Amino acid sequence: MGRLQGKVALVTGAAKGIGAATAKRLAEEGASVVCTDVDADAGQAVADEIANAGGAAAFIAHDVTDEAQWEAAVKLAEDKFGALHIVVNNAGIAPDSTSIEEKTLESWRHVLAIDLDSVFLGCKWGIRTIKKHGGGSIINISSILGLVGQPNASDYNAAKGGVRLLTKSAALECAEAGYDIRVNSVHPGYIDTPLVQDVMAKGEMGGQQVGANEMRELLTMLHPIGRLGIAKEIANAVLFLASDEASFMTGSEMVVDGGYTSR
Ligand SMILES: NC(=O)c1ccc[n+]([C@@H]2O[C@H](COP(=O)([O-])OP(=O)(O)OC[C@H]3O[C@@H](n4cnc5c(N)ncnc54)[C@H](O)[C@@H]3O)[C@@H](O)[C@H]2O)c1
Hints:
Layout: E1 8-12, H1 17-28, E2 32-37, H2 40-52, E3 56-61, H3 67-81, E4 86-89, H4 105-130, E5 136-141, H5 154-177, E6 181-188, H6 194-202, E7 204-205, E8 208-209, H7 212-221, H8 231-242, E9 253-256
Parallel strand pairs: 1-2, 1-4, 2-3, 4-5, 5-6, 6-9
Antiparallel strand pairs: 7-8
Helix pairs in contact: 1-2, 1-8, 3-4, 4-5
The structure holds nicotinamide-adenine-dinucleotide.
The site of nicotinamide-adenine-dinucleotide (NAD) has 28 residues, from α1 and α6.
């Protein structure tokens, strides 16, 4: 028996990186998984990979900032797999590395929409749907940058810090309403995904321009454990929070950062 046997999960941003690793890990443990992403080709490929490995998965194109598309995504879970128990609000983008003085309101709003509004919508549609199916778990992917600040990342800091406390509001609302829905946040350190590879390729660190290799070394040095994380290490944390093993955890923040915030 898998740890999520009989459960139905929806993972946003499932085409790449942490989302793809999470969708595959949840499916390995028996969940039927709705994979969603704006990147339809790569998202469909992840769903196909799960199905080819003997799991159950479906893909739907889904922009997490669009409420009508959230409604369609949770409906797909119910129509195809008969329920929804787990929502992983993972889709997100890294911001441009610009100071508050230089940042435009337009780019600020773009980051806040994808990295924070999306999680509000995911909690809204997650709670509305999961409560009809006996309860479950919502996992919001925040960041170490939802816990500590970084210069030139004000939009990302604000969004990820917002995700941290939005998670606690949602957890309290579910508990007070008597819904059996736990809501927790996960705070990864730097994980070697396409998002971080793009950041390294741009080579902007603290207002300085450095090469990609130097950038990787600098980022590695911030993690006492001596390396960047891999996507599966975050997927395993999500799996735990999604499973009944975390039955007394709600409103909590799980830090998975190789010691980054321990200094
Ligand atoms: N990689 C890290 O070091 C790290 C650290 C802390 C937190 N995070 C967070 O983890 C999450 C996943 O990051 P990742 O590193 O796997 O990123 P990634 O860029 O590798 O993958 C993100 C996925 O989200 C999708 N996406 C982007 N905008 C979308 C939208 N509007 N609607 C739907 N899908 C959209 C992309 O197409 C992509 O498939 C993000 O929320 C990120 O902020 C990542």
